[in-house]
Amino acid sequence: MKCPYCHVPMYKGCCLRCGFMENGVIVNREEKEVTDLEKMLGDSYLPLIRNQNKWTLFFLGPLYLCYRNYFWFGFLLESGELLFLYLFLMFLHSTHFLFLNAISLLPFWIFLYFLVVRILGVYTLNSIYFSLLKSKVKKMNAQEKEEKISHIQTKSYLKVVISILLFVLLYILFVIFLRLF
Burial of 110 by CB count in 10 Å (0-12 exposed, 13-18 middle, 19+ buried)? Predict the structure, then answer.
């Protein structure tokens, strides 16, 4: 039998999700206090806790933190990711891993690097984001919490675009600098 409320299979006459029983009684749950993070994030709290935004995390990588209004931290993590890619490629080149005609494998190694780094990011970036939010809430006093928590903007597409443009500008400056020397 399925629960008439949440349509989940019932276990021994009781729905484990909502507490509905076959005799019509609904087992009451204790009301829990809403935390500051739940107030701050609103509807996006549960998907973030359950890590249901995997594709966003995968495609944005560390820029996800820029999207969530931690611009400099996300920008530094993305810079570190690109620096490690450069070091990885230098390692491959210095060990002659790409010998003779294996230069055609270079796109494969870059793809593999990004795949591994982004999969690691999928499972760590939400926890980093929550720790940053918790530290932000701890710094606020009680009066600030009441006023600011419901008004904090937690998403910004503009910061992702700005950080990408900043990376392009830095890349162009880096190439010009290398051409001069």
Answer: middle
pTM of the model: 0.72
Identify the CA nearest to 137 among candidates 128, 149, 126: 149
What three-state secondary structure class fits 33? coil
Written as six digits, the tokens of 123 are 């499972």
Q: How do the pLDDT tens digits run along the chain, 181 residues long?
A: 788 778 888 888 888 877 778 877 777 766 667 788 888 888 888 888 888 899 999 999 999 999 998 999 999 999 999 889 888 888 877 776 655 556 667 788 889 999 999 999 999 999 999 999 899 888 888 777 777 777 677 788 888 899 899 988 988 888 888 788 7
How far is the CA of 127 from the CAs of 32, 50, 65, 76, 157, in angstroms? Answer: 22, 11, 11, 17, 20
Contact residues for 159 (Cβ-Cβ < 8 A; gap 6+): 66, 67, 69, 71, 74
